User: Fold these one by one.
Assistant:
Number 1:
Amino acid sequence: MSRTKLLAAGLLAALLPLPAMAEGSAEAGRTKISMCVGCHAIPGYKSSFPTVYQVPMIKGQSAKYIEAALQAYRKGERSHPTMRGIAAGLSDQDIADLAAYYGTR
């Protein structure tokens, strides 16, 4: 491919709109936290599967961090089996709502 065609293709790709990310609602997220609070709202809680693991408190984490972590679990980029199972059942909107909720706490 010529350099000109390659440059033109790159410029065209840069101008294409990116897919919109779901806009999160903290209020909607509040209705979806039941699967989170059983582990993440208990100070000092440790899970025992697959190994003993100190469960982090997610209250106060940034929305971007929560969203990125849940997306990574859903894609299989993070390995905790319980979180992978939970994230697999979440839609992009669910993830955005949970991130908005925890990002405001």
Number 2:
Amino acid sequence: MLLGENKNRKTARSSFAGKAADKIKSANKKRAALGVAAIAVAAAAAVSIGASASLGQSVSGSADILQLSGFEYDKDDYKASSLMAENDNLVRTKVITAKSGNPDEQSTEVAEKPPVVSLNEKSITFKKLKESFVLVPSFSKEDAETKYKWTSADDKIAKVDKNGKVTPVKNGTVKITCTEENSGAKAECTVTVKTVLVKGIRLNPSSVTMNLKESKTIKSKITNDDAANKTLKWSSSDEKVVKVNNKGKITSVAAGTANVTCAATDGSGVKRTVKVTVNNVVALKELQLNYIDIQFCGLGCVEQLSVMSYLPEEATDTSVTWASTNENVAVVDQNGNVYPVDNGVCDIVATANDGSKVKASCPVTVSGVVNYVPVEPNYNVVIPQNININETANSIVEEADKYVGWLPYVWGGTDLTSGVDCSGFVCAIYEKFGINLWGIRTDLIYAGREVSLEEARAGDIIVYHGHVAIYDGNGGKIHAPTEGYMVTHDYGIGNYRSIRRVIE
């Protein structure tokens, strides 16, 4: 603060020096002691310094008032240092040099304390990783505009966001610093993360054997439920053999052996390893059969299932084993041939032989097995009295219907008086109408021309896989079904391969 004007440098110096000497003598000591505080404020005359004050008078700076209580004098350079009581806002001593002119005028400069940042907590301890704590800063200058920046000395132990929210990461100790960017003032909080560590890990299975292009999952479990950080890290010793994701799913890449390791991430050092062996085999992943479903109406028909497609295409072994879920309904041989047995529903299942356990199934429905007449052991054919086999009926259907219930199925049979098989029955009936089909008996799929079911007429030939029958014109068939039964008339046709028209 400027209290007067400088007039004459020489006069000010001598006047000030004289008063200083008188002041010292009256106190009977060369150096006056400061009574209460230890901070000195300079008071001297100097042309180049801005503010001045009178010795013995009060020096005013802003709202702060200092009272000179003592000083020391150096006659060689005409300087005096004033020793003064400390005011709350003063932090250092400033030399004041006398100015020329009025000896009662001096220049003074008073510095304030630097601003201070403080936090609501100086230290925090976390015992759980899911906890968090918000640090709240305060600034010594209440009216000042503030802008805070938060930093962590190690984000791997604890993180802090822009709002002062502290989140633990793993065990350890770290400093969180809050900086007021306008002033540069800082405050720190010591954060300690001290949680329960993982004590053990269990893996299942303990070893794995797999084929090429195959995936499996290793299940993991931490033995102590109170572990704070249950995040596990998976790794493979050789990713050219097997890869693993963060959930323990392993995928084979090439034949060989590698170790898959599951490790705790909480700094406990706990880990477990599984040995993985990859065989030089590409296993099946998917099978698709040639039939979506099979429907049998009556006995005697046969349908052949096969693997129509599979994945991956480079699978090493594509063979399958066939089985029926209910052999009282239908049976299957190892070539995939399905035979109806009795009314009901079952599945025919194909299981891969390569150890992959891949399966495909086809539902089978058998119906219409109602009026089948079984053939007794050592049965001798007896022609009913009302049947004249020497006369030909008016139509193929009428002729075929004459043999229902008494003519037995005989493998390879062609005689309408002793027994027939399915194709022998059809050829023998047609022969009675002057049509010779014996040359294509086993290939009746080539007889005549194909017609649709909507176009089918009585007397047309229905061709199945491994079976044939005569269409009755009403959605049924007449045929020699299978060994152990007589010729029968079924009121349904089930799955068929083709319908052939020989007689136009």
Number 3:
Amino acid sequence: MNTRSIALLSLAVLVALTLSLGQALAQQPTHSLYEESRTIIPDNLPWYPIVVIGDNRPTNVNNVQLPPIFYMVVNETKKIYPVAVIGTGDHTGMGTQEQINVLYNALKGLQNVWLALGNHDLDAHQEKYWTEVIAPDHYHVDDIPGWRIYVLNSECRLSMQWRAQVNTIWNNLGNRSLILVFHRPIYPKVEHNLDPERANYLLKKISQNDHVKIVLQGHWHGYAAEMRNGIEWIITGGAGAPLYDYPKTPPDNATIVLERNHYIVLILYSNQTFTYEPVLAGNGSGELVVTRINSTAYKIVNTKLNIFKKPAWIPVRLHVNISGWDVYATLIAPPSSTIIANIQANGYDVKITSNATNWYAYATPPGGTNKAIVGKPVNGVVELKLYKLQTTTTTTPTTTTTTTTTTIITTTSQPTTTTTTAETTPGAQTQTTTSPGSPSPVPTTTPSQESQSWMLWVSAAIIIAAIIAALLIVKKK
């Protein structure tokens, strides 16, 4: 092979590598799942349905795709359409960038996704990429009235980092109750627990500060729960990872179920009470079928089983858009039941009927609001009175940026057919419009965008350098 052929072959290889890099960068999300899924949760709802998952990594940790059972869980979660999804860690095989992207795409479209890091999520040493694409390594949300959900990183390298996280749990807590979320469990004792030093430090702080009601954990691949000193300690590690067959003898006062895939549905009430159901997943677990019968009616068939293989209750949140408003009917589908819900609009008057016994309906303007229009059923009927949404466009004098503002005015006229318009935060200079029910993106530049730009410039420089080198070699020849 002559010098010219070698130069041209080298150039072709460099171009191919650069195109592959560009394709990979194009697939990288520009906002983290935590940011992109954030949706305002009204603080005046009767109760709040949440789905909790844990340990959905593949058996072969090098696999990019997640286990089939996990996708079954995700599909059921999307039918439930909860106000939030909580994850207890080990959501990827090794935490490679490609695996993290697959996780992002699997959960995209759900609202308020709050995931904890697990040990497998850090094996590829891509913690920075995780924080750019999925979520911070530790954080808290106060979005549900009466509650703070604090996501800890039990995989931090140094004990002092763990202590620093724990020390901030109660900051500005007020009278909220706490839900703690982390990967390695403390209770029940399942022979696969957090190291004693870190566990004891957290337990000491809990005894000094109180407020903790629920602790959600993973790492051990099964289901376990224990009420200890007024705290519900739950391990949920059955969303796809290989299941464990130990311990053979459950700890005193603990419930342990081995070798059954599952997830948890959790209902939070603003009075700081809660209830939950561990739901069996996979073949033989029953079905949750949500069907739109016609333009106004929905049919929900629930034959799901819980982890004890008994009929399970399941919450379902139906969503439609009416005249720019997001309208939701939030129901409990009892065990072995068929529920019918009908959502009809006459102008700005919305009537929802259902044969469910535990349900409510609410409406929010585009962009969400802390105070929804909420209705509880009377004789199986909820009536919501909506208002016309008026959109105006103004230009900020000091900039060339257009700001869109949504206001609500009382009207008796018929609605016009429009798509949703985003609500502008006071003082904001820019606004992104989103479709009803979709997560509201955060209009900021993330580190991942900066790294994409930098790497694309490097790729362009490589191509130019390769072309110049090839031409020089050919000319010299």
